[in-house]
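Q: Sequence in, structure out?
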Amino acid sequence: MIIRIVKLSFHPEYISDFKTIFEENKQKIISQKGCNRLEMLNDINDVNVIFTYSWWDYQDDLNNYRNSELFKDIWNKTKILFDKKPEAWSTKKINEVL
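A: Exactly. Output:
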């Protein structure tokens, strides 16, 4: 299982635009092969920072999505809204406590 964490910093006037892009595409993303979960989170100290978390079965599934026309379309609409360069991490769970 791969958990992809992406930190996105937006110009304040574009936050609602990104939320609309996410809303319009979330079902398409979760329908991609190997995608099991998708979340959007807002930083509690900076409302202009949004994180997306996505859970993927395999790295290849994530890579296939990142190389897809869907991702390219979403990215082209999103990258013009950034205030700072995005940051991203692909992680694996080591431990979990419930």
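The longest strand covers residues 2-9.
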